[in-house]
Amino acid sequence: MSTLGGDLEQNALIDLDPLVGVHRPSPGGSSARPHEDSGEERAWKEDLCHAICGNKWSDAKAILDQNPNALTSVVSHNGRTALHVAAMIGHVTIVEELLKLLPPQFLLTLDSDGNTALVMASWFSGNTEVAKCLVSKNSRVLEIPDMVGDLPVIVAFAKGYQEMGRYLYFVTPMECLPGRWGSRLLLHCLHAQCFDIALNLLQQCEELLLVPFNNLGTTPIRLPVMFAWTSDKKIEVKGIKKNLPRQIKLTKRSMCDAYQCRSKKIQELKLLHAQADELLLLVCKNAGKAYQKGVIKEALCLAAKEGNVEFVFQVSKVIPEIFLDQTLLMCFDEALHYRQARVFNLIHGLRFKHGLVTTTPDHNGNYLMHKAAMKAPDHVLNRIYAPTLQMQRELQWFKEVESLTPPSYRIFRNKNGMTAEELFRGSHGELMKQGEKWIKTTASSCSVVGTLIVTIMFAVAFTVPGGNDQNLGYPLFIKQPFFKVFIFSTILSLLSSSTSVLMFLAILTSQFSEEKFLKSLPTKLILGLSFLFISIVSMIVAFLCTIRLMLKHTNYSWGVLPITILASVPIVLFVMSEFPLLLHTFVSTYGNIFDRKVEPWP
């Protein structure tokens, strides 16, 4: 069995007082010294274990009646009794029947790993009804930790059994939870996003934020999980439709059910937001104590790394003296390194922001602008759609920091003798090559499609449906409404496809310097994709108009609808494949991730 926390030493958290009175079962069910089982004993133990695992109480009861010692004997490996096995599997009926035959003190029995039956239920089955049976028989079982020193309530939350964990939390004596046990419970509640339990626990014992939960002295306020749950990217109302049934019949009842399901989900997420906000207030309330203990600096840096702007902002208001040391600069360094724009935007609210960017450089002689010139970690860049847009985002960050830096500081060199601009060019050389290769490949592929459409529509423009009048040369269908749509869509498709080809050609022949990735290349890509999309739609419309004109006076006019449906397939496929690229490029180019209208502080 693996431990619940890799950083927790074995038996480090065990409180010896609750273990008074616990005992281990003997192989034979008596207090005699252990002995080897005979063949007959092994047989009925195997049969009893098999019956319990198969939820066959009648078979198990017959074996217990024939063997008086079977009730308290070890029946499986690791020193587990029948009660351990039943609780581990989660068979409520068998647990209830066994508890009728066992004294309350037996529930404190440990297996060879040092676990009670309640711990086994918390580890494996997560059955709340089993837990209720065990606790009602002997509530002291709540105070017996597992082999690594965690209470059953901590084990339940750590294994993801939230229902069982909630039950155990409200029946576990509060005097057991202060200290390391409470700190570990808080940690696992936050991991499981059980904010109501975490909030209730902190309201009764706020000091848990600063209580170490392992022998390394790590406290909950210093962990990334403390800053993930208030971030918008962790809890959001978007995407709720994914949780609705995939196949919803268009009936009044099913539509009402779907609406209620969606409304319930929204209410649950709003409740999580409210609970997370209350937790944030409690954390900020204890920020002063954390500052005195010297742990708030690391907590702020972790919050900046996770993008929790609210925590950084509120803590700086609670502890105004934080502006006197380097803590704030460390936060902006983390936000810059991990490209957390919302946190970095706070710098615009500082009255001494120019002094911050020109402060003493680090041990390598790097000012803030040098740090902005360094390439972001790969896992941060991979969140962006394509290498070209990754290069663009890196340029945007560099230009943002450059706008804050006085001109005289932009030419300063670090200990390697490099200016910020030279450092940017050197650290992003490989990314620029990848961006150039990607956008060239994309432009080349799209230009082939555009050229094909130009060829087709040029030929269509001189081959009108229905033919021409032999005397006057006018098209025969010139007075038909659909013929006008045909002419207009043909011209639009020809011109838009020609424009898209020219845009992609401009990309292929462009000068690939760093500055081109900021606006020029993305803009050409946006125009090329947009005109290509228009040309494809216009071409399909021209095709449908031709079919409509040809089938109007025939017996096959019924075929217009299915042909129209099939003709929409290429448009849908193009939108699904290329529209995300178009959208990401447009937002990345003309959207602004840096908000300079920030509330002044301090």
Describe the fold and architecture.
The chain is mainly α. It has four domains: 17-176, Serine Threonine Protein Phosphatase 5, Tetratricopeptide repeat (Alpha Horseshoe); 218-325, no CATH class; 327-427, no CATH class; 435-590. The chain contains 26 helices and no strands. The protein has helices at residues 39-53, 57-66, 82-89, 92-101, 117-125, 128-137, 152-158, 162-171, 180-191, 195-204, 225-228, 252-285, 287-293, 296-306, 309-318, 327-337, 341-344, 353-357, 368-373, 378-381, 387-404, 420-427, 429-461, 481-508, 520-551, 560-590. Helix 5 (117-125) packs antiparallel against helix 6, helix 10 (195-204) packs parallel to helix 12 (252-285) and helix 23 runs parallel beside helix 25. The longest helix has 34 residues, at 252-285. It is flat and about 115 Å long. Residues 1-18, 30-34 and 229-255 have low confidence and may be disordered.
Task: Indicate the topology.
Layout: H1 39-53, H2 57-66, H3 82-89, H4 92-101, H5 117-125, H6 128-137, H7 152-158, H8 162-171, H9 180-191, H10 195-204, H11 225-228, H12 252-285, H13 287-293, H14 296-306, H15 309-318, H16 327-337, H17 341-344, H18 353-357, H19 368-373, H20 378-381, H21 387-404, H22 420-427, H23 429-461, H24 481-508, H25 520-551, H26 560-590
Helix pairs in contact: 1-2, 1-3, 3-4, 3-5, 4-6, 5-6, 5-7, 6-8, 7-8, 7-9, 9-10, 10-12, 12-15, 14-16, 21-23, 23-24, 23-25, 24-25, 25-26
